[in-house]
Amino acid sequence: MAHVRIEGVTKDFGEVKALRRVDLEIKDAEFLVLLGPSGCGKSTLMRIIVGLETATTGDVFIDDQRVNDLPPRDRNIAMVFQDYALYPHLKVYDNMAFPLRTKKVPKDQISKKIQEVARMFEIEALLDRKPRQLSGGQQQRVALARAVVRDPVIFLMDEPLSNLDAKLRAAARDELKRFQRDVGVTTVFVTHDQVEALGMGDRIAVMDVGSVCQIGTPEQVYSHPVNTFVATFLGTPPMNLVHCPEHILGFRPEHFQPKALFESGDDLADFQFRIHRVEYLGNERIVYGGLEGTFENMSGGELVMGSLPDSVAHARTLEDGKRYEFGVRREDLRFFDNDTEQAIESPSGGV
Amino acid sequence: MSANVGTKRAGGIGGLLDRPGFLASLFVSPAMLYMLLLLGVPFVGAIAFSMTDLNIGMLFNTMPSFVGLENFASLIDDPDFRQALRNTFVFAIGSQAVAIILGNILAQVLMAEFRFKPLFRVLVLLPWATPIALGVLGWKWMYDSIYSIINYNLRFLGLLTDGNWPIWLGNPDLAPIAIILVHAWKSFPFVGVIIVAANTSIPRNVIDAAKVDGAGFFRQLFKINLPIVLPIVTVGLVFGTVFAFTDMSVIWLLTRGGPMNVTHVLATLAFQNGILSGDIGRGSAISVFLVPILGVLVVMALRGIRREA
Known about the structure:
The complex is a heterodimer of chains A (351) and B (309).
Chain A: E1 4-13, E2 16-26, E3 31-35, H1 42-50, E4 57-62, E5 65-66, E6 77-80, H2 92-102, H3 107-121, H4 136-148, E7 154-158, H5 166-183, E8 186-191, H6 194-200, E9 203-208, E10 211-216, H7 218-223, H8 228-233, E11 240-243, E12 248-251, E13 257-258, E14 268-280, E15 284-292, E16 303-309, E17 323-329, E18 334-336, E19 343-344
Parallel strand pairs in A: 3-8, 3-9, 6-7, 7-8
Antiparallel strand pairs in A: 1-2, 1-4, 4-5, 9-10, 11-12, 12-18, 13-17, 14-15, 14-17, 15-16, 18-19
Chain B: H1 12-18, H2 20-50, H3 70-77, H4 79-111, H5 117-129, H6 132-142, H7 149-156, H8 174-200, H9 204-212, H10 217-246, H11 249-255, H12 266-276, H13 280-288, H14 291-308
């Protein structure tokens, strides 16, 4: 259980600026997600925390101790890699024993600890096998077991679930989160999957091109994105962005509903919406279409999407080609500056 | 208008060529012919001759008679043969041991970054790529009894005192060393390149995991790098060992098997006995002497590789 402080960290690889000024604090026992697209620097930041890379400038503190110059093995951090990085030539038992042997733990203690952890992850039967004889899910559990066996103060996980097939992934997400809650170890979890991030993180740090755009709870980053990047990165389908002369208007597809579905007291922004196509996805319907008429001084024609759950009977009546009256609650509207793309408060002028 | 897709010509050469079995055999046949005529027939021939008393004088004259394993028995009694048998192993193992060490050093150099690396890489592979006779002739001059550039350099560096002038190829104690060095020289670039390839094939994440798990330099090297790299490097060593085992040219051009037969190996001894002296039966026996052992070794090695794969 440790807390991590990252102050003013930058990282250059020659000409390439992988990280531009990251300031981040990770609380004790927190499950922090580093979320961002490929190349945003999240893996680099993680490697700096664990010590596989050194920051060009800035400091990393673990429990208030400056660890910049400390090699990975002295930081008591365990890491789970995306492709598990199990030692291919060693049996599962020896894979798990490796970190203990480097610390010169006596043999009987090693054996005890491995049995204990193997039971925790239900891999006792696999101890004599080699990694190539294991399925993806089993390899993942072994990778986790190898990390746990060291009793680290921090877990770092680099997209550990992305190699699992979709079915396994949801179950693995649940197991992992509950495990972390039970053990209470500070965890930094790197992913590009925003669903994973929303589902697992206590807080999410959204990164893009080398810096942290926004840090907050899943509700905060989802409901109050600080710029259009965060707004469109989180949420599927992504937030609709309508370009108006004075600002960019944003609203999420699930807030964009036929007017008839709102309650009479709601304060709505009205839109004329012609549906081009209804997409049936089983549990929901996505309606693709264009805004018509004038609003916000715009002449219309912007393509937007709406998302209606299948449980809404009205959704089944929507047809291609027809025009409907849709609306968004004003409190669900978001506004972004045309030039900086940063979030702004609700501006003057209405729909 | 119907498409004519799928109609086959009934017979004739077109139809024959369309049959996969036939076409495959056709393509493989030149190679099979080569193997049969240039490898298979001489091999069987050698085994056959080794059990006769055939010599050159008998050709077109007398019929050789079957003598069973007599040739082999007389070889085992011959100290020169026993020496040649020893040498075959000692030179092969010794030269590969040196090649591994030099190859490792080379691998470290090749994995570092430095200025003239592309040129260096070409130079480094030259020994392996050079036609063997050319390379050995160069070495012959380097080992020369008067003009040895090795000796000149050693004296220049002060490592050779006056009165000490090693006659590399004429001294029965030095000649084997000279030969082992040339074998190593030929093999080490290949071993080095294979070590580099094997090392770079280790996924970076596995090395990272070892670092995070607390492995220092030596533990990483011995517990992670080496075990993963070993099967691949073994392949390179097999090539080098086979080369040294069967080598004829290097030894023949340097020492002809001398001085006093101390540097003979089975290949050169077989040549001397069988071709130069004309005792085909004896020469054949020498050359097939190792077949059973090599056969077992190859089977073991192949099984080992297959198990790792």
